[in-house]
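Researcher: Re-running this chain for the archive, since the previous output was lost when a drive failed. Same request as before.
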Amino acid sequence: MKSNYTKRPDSFPEKLIHGDPPTTLRNRTTVANHLNKTFVEKGPKLANDLPQSETPIYKTMGRRNPVSMSFEPISSDEVVSIVNELKIKNQLELIIFLLC
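Model: Regenerated structure tokens:
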């Protein structure tokens, strides 16, 4: 199936300002490395912040409904259409959206 997807203009931010005191990153590789490091460090911290329980999770979840979710095939045009409807305008906004 052929997609009607057309590449959008580059929306990479001109700079990324972070930290205290603020540091400005301008190089794509430096920004990517910084964001990767941030994501890698957040996962284990979030996992450690979860409350621990003596009861196994499967005992608190209740009975599983085997028909509670189903998937239907969709085209790449439908995916592009859904993504284009998001209010997020660039990759940096998407990253911030995912972090919050």
